[in-house]
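Appendix B, record 7
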Amino acid sequence: MKHVLFGILFFVTGSISIAQSANTASCSSVNHLREGVASGRIEVVLPNQLSSEDVASYAKYYEPFFNVDFNATNHKATFLMVSNTADSRRVILRFLSANQIQTVVVDGKSYLLQDFYQNFLEK
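Structure tokens (predicted):
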């Protein structure tokens, strides 16, 4: 019985950790992110589970606000803003949400999407 309970616990713990990483994007550093916001060229590393097709299928809906250049090798998505305003950058959150991303890690700290916007994209 102990082995069965241990197996179930191990399975649940493993599933939770995999599910959390699948819903997380990341940015290399605060400085790099702020430079990207200022220039209108924002880089975010998307989860490995996303394919080029996934990114392209969602990106087409947001072309009035930004274009997405996706490198499938390193999973880096570069958002090229059409109009580099706070409202246009807010639409990045919709793109991330559409791809089932719930948090963004910046310098080792995890931010919910709204907090990510308020701390980095809004300015």
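Remarks on this record: The helical segments are 2-22, 30-39, 52-59, 86-98, 113-121. The mean pLDDT is 88.
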